[in-house]
Amino acid sequence: MAFKTFYKVAAALATAGVLSACGPQIEKTAAEPKRITSQQQLALTDVVSSQLAPLALGGKDYLLLASEKRGLVLVTGEGEEKLALDGGTVERFALQQLADDSWLIAVYDEDGAELQLRLLDVEDGSPRIRYLASMATTAPQVAMCFSRQAGRTHLFAIDENGLGHEYVVHPREQAWEFTGLRPLYFGEQVSSCVVDDRSGKLLVAQPPLGIWSLNADAEMDEAREVFVAASELPAGEFGGLWLDSSSGNLWLTGGEKVLAFNINAPGQGPLFVEALADIEPVSAAVQQGALLALEEESDQVHRFAVTLPEPAAEMQAFRSPVEIPRVRASGQTAPVQSGGDAADDPAIWVNPVNPSASLILGTDKKSGLSVYDLNGKLLEHFAVGRVNNVDLRPMQHGKFVAIAAATNRTDPGVSLFGISAAGEVEYLGLRNLEMDDPYGLCVYRKGADLMTWVSDKDGAVQLLQIVPGTGNVDWSLEKVATLQVESQVEGCVVDDEKQMLFFGEEDGGIWRLDIAAFLSGEAKPQLIAPVDGERLAADVEGMGLYHAGDKSYLVVSSQGNNSYALFSRDGSQFVGHFKVDINLDKNLDGSSETDGLEVSSASFGSQYPQGLLVVQDGRNRMPSQTQNFKLVSWADIAETLQLK
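Given the sequence above, the corresponding structure tokens read:
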């Protein structure tokens, strides 16, 4: 699918190249602008560099240069060499400031065929470079760039074949580590990359197609699109991307030209274009109001006196988005068997005798129902068809102590499962429904009766009673009522004690219904929490109830912003929200685009003493695999949101 996406967006780039003729662009037919001459040349000694970057260290200005002979070389703003690595062949590096006098550097060393991490800082007033870590690669890396996400450092590295990887780079005891997060696919001829942490965008230069823009966050859709089409750039090679984060200007080189674009305004054409005399730059940057440029494999930095573009107005008025609190994942299930969008909805069976032996049931909506233990190990899979949503309730009947129900879209109906006291799950068969496409489902108890709400994907919601038969498999469904809804409903949950139904209208919000009053004709659903793009961002998906007396909460998947919203038990008050984040200690990724969820307040032992939240993960990373379910300790949620 990744390669299909690449070719699809490549076609978009080609189209953009045609359409951009309608907007501002570099005039190809007019006379070339007058070439500018450098005002100063900084002579270097035996460096052979094709990349430079400015930085400040100890209150002084420096230039860092890649060296094909000496690895990395640091010089002052006047060109005086201060330090160099002891050898190595480096053509590209990435640079990120960690603190005022501390910079993280990633390099690809051709001699060792490895990615290396270095730390540039100050000791006794003098700059120094220290080794942190290295990792062998299977192909030369042609582009590297850092990103800052949720307080972590991420590194993007793209090889000469166009295969990119995103890593979390982080300290671990005596050394730093590269933890792989996901692959990225571009195709050949990538020349450079940069990340704008303000917008969360990764920009990749790829002659002759143009410059891509895509989301840097692995838990979001790539949303790959054209930032600058090839028609806006000089013909031939272009790249050398460098972002001036203070001004919001993206600098790059192409042919004899240096160009700058407003990072916040894709498609608006360049803010700055100058042709340089005597050199064809491959790397350019700005320092102290001057333009610096470097030719390929050069021993000379050229400084130009030019009128630089003003900082983007958007940068001056920019406000970072409000950061949603994050809670680290505590565990995960094995990936589901089916590829693509497959995992959907979980349910939790609490073993009343031995809570640590409880079970997680999870749907694979292309295959059937999977059963996991609390460590996420797959215990059993029932290949019963396209089951979508699952829920369960305790119910003593013969050898069973609980009954689970799941909507089945292969043969429209509800699949039933019995769970014994020993934790053995048995398939009880399918009960057909007069419904085109059974979709959402939630089970509840009404006294001794077992009830379920089932939604039709494009229709109404039915209330059914699950009626046990004389034997273990002689069960039936009896329709009790029909609830008309405005639009698509999937996620739902019932507060058994209060006989209150909560359901999510995916684009609308959370609705509440007094079931008894509805059945007597005295009540209709109430919209208690509309989608507002912040607390709830469409789609509204999975729902669960955390029962703990006055510390009870309605938990809802806010799929549009990859978060989970907590409301008061009756759904009337917003309590807070959070995201499920990476857990580097356990090598777990976070979760995103969650469909179904379930929560329990039972104590499952030392790992989940206050309960457990299970959420479907739409993008299973570290490494990239088929979808699964993430497990989160409620104690961590309570601590993060300061639930009292």
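The chain has two domains: 2-306, 326-641. Try to locate this feature in the token string yourself.
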